[in-house]
Amino acid sequence: MAAPVSIAHTHVHSLRIASGAEALVARVLAADGTAGFGFTLNLDAGVARDMAAWDALARAKGVPLFGLLGGSYRKEVRILTDELPAIPADWTALRQDILDGRHELLCIDPFAWGSVEMVQTIAAIANAFDLSIALLAPNAHPWELQYCAALAATLKGEDTRIIVRSMSSSSEIPVSESPGMGIDWAVEPSFSKIQWQS
Amino acid sequence: MVHAGSMYVIQKTERTVVELVLENGVTGLGETWGTPDVYALAQRFAREWIGKDALDRFALRDVVGKSSYDNRFGRNGMATLAGLDLAAWDAAARSLKMSLAELIGARKRESIDVVSTLPAAILPKAVSRKELTDHLDVLANTELVVRFAQEQVRKSGFRSFKLKSAAHSPEWDWKLLNELREAMPKARIRFDPNANYGAATATELCRRLDPLGLEFFEDPTGELEGIARLKAAVKTPVASNMWVVRDEHLVPAIRRKAIDVVLGDLFMWGGIDAWRRMARVTHAYGMKPALHSVYETGIATVANLHLASALSEVEYPNDSGLHFLSSDVVSENLKVVDGAMTLPTGPGLGVTLDRNKLDKVALESVEIRS
């Protein structure tokens, strides 16, 4: 389930962000002309393109991501500092480990699993097995936190949370009600300087 | 048509039809069971929904509580919720100018194969249990069911059938299924005695039926343990719409390797999102989700088409009983052609309520306003 949107054009751009790290930023142009954006700091453009397609669809429809996925379970998401390792993005191993009762809390790096659909599928399994989900924002970058918050809104479970490796200034992040993914692209000044292909 | 199975012999179906009107003027359609309990609950839940956001269907589920323990209304509550939830999904999809399939995830298929139910026996009118068993004692009467099936092939090109069984005698079912297989060598045939055979009888019967290559045995017995033992003893896939019907049934079924197919009924599962989650979990653990249905109007029939179109996990044909109903409540002429139904176009479900048709069959109606 990639975003059900007709895509006219996709462009991925490499970006140097303020921390000095490299980010990939994707822009998707929907057939109706709406632009959507996605990003990743792990250099797998797939997740950025998937995010941009959902962003384009949500903007075109004038709703936040949760408006496309069925609803929202929360208005804000807790952010906790934790060293809990992220579960390797190995679908076969994850299913078996869950079945074998090796997890209590699934620490999922949504950038490593590649798509909104994959996170939704893991969440459905977590719900069936009464497991909690933590979404890892690997670099605690504001974009990562905002993407995790948009996803976390749609995940069932009282314990749903975002994990960072070092304490951020806020221990809670609101779920955006704005159209799209709710990501504030302006926090990286270099974003506005990207020369997108027409 | 008279429907005869192990649970009832009926000549009509009663449904609750839901129209949900949003503040923006968009109307969503839903449908659920028509029992007095569900009809009353629908009014109660509808009152609680006034003023809430149709885009946030997760919050609308609060009427039945967070868990099965919290749900004081049992499966009537889940079915009622599913009927209103469907109307909310339809209204949301129409507001967003998306088809229901797209809002569920994608619109991958336009045509969905459907299954024709075969009554356990062909009767001229609804009869008493005694008259039914007398009829079933005459094994020559199986021929009537075979002729009925062949008529469905001629009329609508059906390739898939569900034989309801009254579970009166294994001899009747064995003879009839052999005759159906001989008459339609390539047809998919599912066999459904609604768990009215004991585990030992069912297992013995299903072992004998294995060489027929049926599509699956649907609730040949029950509960979960009985069906799991039966599954271990046969080669034909085993399905259930009775023992795996809620979130918390999935993991025991997975661990026990109890069934191959979760034949999920939208109204048992409590709505679109619950069904979608079920499909994902089922597929992830090597089972297959499929759409169960009884005699539903065009509204729920089309909802099931959208689910099958949207979720690639659905490979089996959809149950459907619409073609047996003498009337419908939607304007669209929903037909089975070559054994398949086509998704209507347009936003949401893509069907519209036909007031004249509804008025002709409506027993009661009530409007809930703020």
Task: Walk me through what this model shows.
Chain A has 198 residues and is of the alpha/beta class. Chain A contains six helices and eight strands. In chain A, strand 1 (7-16) and strand 2 form a beta hairpin. Chain A is globular and about 50 Å long. The mean pLDDT of chain A is 94. Chain B is of the alpha/beta class and 370 residues long. In chain B, strand 3 (15-21) and strand 4 (27-33) form a beta hairpin. In chain B, helix 7 runs parallel beside helix 8. The mean pLDDT of chain B is 96. In chain B, the strands form three sheets. In chain B, strands 5, 6, 7, 8, 9, 10, 11, 12 and 13 form a nine-stranded mixed beta sheet that branches. The interface between A and B is medium-sized, with 24 and 31 residues.
Taking the alpha carbons of the first and last residues of chain B, their distance comes to: 41 Å
Number of helices of chain A: 6
Name the overall outline of chain A: globular
Task: State the end-to-end CA separation of chain A.
Answer: 27 Å
Order of helices and strands of chain B: EEEEHHHHEHHEHEHEHEHEHHEHEEH
- Percent helix among the residues of chain B? 40-55%
Instruction: Please tell me the overall pLDDT of chain A.
Output: 94
**Radius of gyration of chain A, Cα only, in angstroms?**
16 Å
Amount of beta strand of chain A = 15-25%
Q: How much of the sequence of chain B is in beta strands? A: 15-25%
Largest sheet of chain A: 5 strands, mixed
User: Number of DSSP strands of chain B?
Assistant: 13
Of all chain pairs, the largest interface belongs to: A-B, 24 and 31 residues
Which class do the helix and strand fractions of chain A yield?
alpha/beta
Instruction: Enumerate the spans of chain A where pLDDT stays under 50 for 5 or more consecutive residues.
Output: none
